[in-house]
Amino acid sequence: MLEIWQANAHGRLNHPEDTRNLPVEPAVEPVFRGFGRIFTDSQGGFDFTTIKPGRVTGPGNTLQAPHIVVFVFARGLLKPLLTRIYFPPGEDPGEDNAAANTADAVLNLAPAERRSTMIASPATEGANVLHWDVVLQGERETVFFDW
Prior knowledge:
By secondary structure, the protein is mainly beta. It contains one helix and six strands; from the N terminus they run ββββαββ. The strands form two sheets. A four-stranded antiparallel sheet has the order 2-1-3-4, with no helix packed on it. A two-stranded antiparallel sheet has the order 5-6. A hairpin with an 8-residue loop joins strand 3 (67-72) and strand 4. It is globular and about 45 Å long.
């Protein structure tokens, strides 16, 4: 099972500690809550639909690149694994994801040669569809953070 957490399109988190005066999404169905859980199918596949998160402040009061926080729960794990999904360059003509990703303090904690495991890629299904694999071990293992 995957649990996702993210900011809204304006960079506001659905959390009581985020008291910034930023817009929230209108209360129409489906209501954006900033988190969700997705169960994988028998082959380990999953999908979800969401909005692109806005940038939030991070270490040193710098802006982080748009991202989705992902917790991975699986049988045999004593605690969930923590990673992120970042957006690929060129995905949004109105935003320079490449520059935002390059400057992101958290993404830069990962070795340069492994950062791509946290960056989604355009899918072949059509516009506004991204592809991202979570790999638990072996070649192309996803970067997971200690927490």
